[in-house]
Recover the amino acids of this structure.
């Protein structure tokens, strides 16, 4: 059965009037607020993780965490940091966005999820930019290190780098998912409490 292009389905739009094309589907102020919250929590958790990491290692042979144990601990901490930060940022973006009256609930859910995802993405891009600039500035005045490098040292460094890259990718994927869910939960709660 063909429907007229201007026919409003009362099941999909119980309010009778869908959102007009004049409004934006994105609330950038809510996304920016969620991004700021996510970055602030990320920095706090990274500082705490650095303190815990430095407390677990030692410059003396045989004392402190082994490199493999340290790498796994750091990877788990990255995942926890992403999970908490992305969840907070997505939740804030969903909860702080403007209300969309007359819009179908599936569309509202999609937009809330997109707000959470975009909050995670924006925070990730900003934090990556900060990390690249910091690493670049740290290397400006560094003098070459005269150290003998053995095959075992290179292999150990490679294994740590591979594990760190894997944990980073996993933490980013978890962050994207949790940020999206946080946006959906925050938006749902926003609509339950006008």
């Amino acid at each position: 059965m063909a429907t007229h292009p201007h026919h409003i389905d009362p099941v999909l739009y119980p309010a009778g009037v869908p959102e007009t094309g004049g409004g934006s589907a994105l609330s950038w102020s809510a996304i920016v607020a969620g991004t700021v919250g996510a970055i602030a929590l990320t920095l706090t958790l990274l500082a705490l993780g650095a303190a815990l990491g430095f407390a677990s290692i030692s410059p003396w042979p045989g004392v402190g965490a082994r490199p493999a144990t340290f790498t796994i601990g750091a990877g788990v901490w990255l995942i926890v940091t992403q999970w908490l930060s992305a969840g907070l940022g997505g939740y804030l973006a969903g909860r702080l966005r403007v209300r969309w009256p007359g819009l179908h609930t599936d569309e509202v859910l999609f937009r809330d999820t997109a707000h959470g995802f975009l909050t995670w993405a924006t925070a990730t891009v900003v934090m990556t930019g900060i990390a690249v600039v910091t690493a670049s500035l740290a290397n400006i005045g560094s003098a070459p290190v005269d150290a003998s490098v053995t095959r075992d040292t290179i292999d150990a460094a490679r294994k740590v780098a591979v594990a760190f890259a894997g944990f980073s990718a996993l933490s980013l994927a978890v962050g994207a998912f949790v940020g999206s869910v946080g946006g959906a939960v925050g938006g749902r709660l926003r609509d339950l409490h006008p």
Observations:
- The helical segments are 28-56, 67-96, 105-138, 151-192.
- The two ends are 37 Å apart (CA to CA).
- The first helix runs from residue 28 to 56.
- Residues 1-5 have pLDDT under 50 and may be disordered.
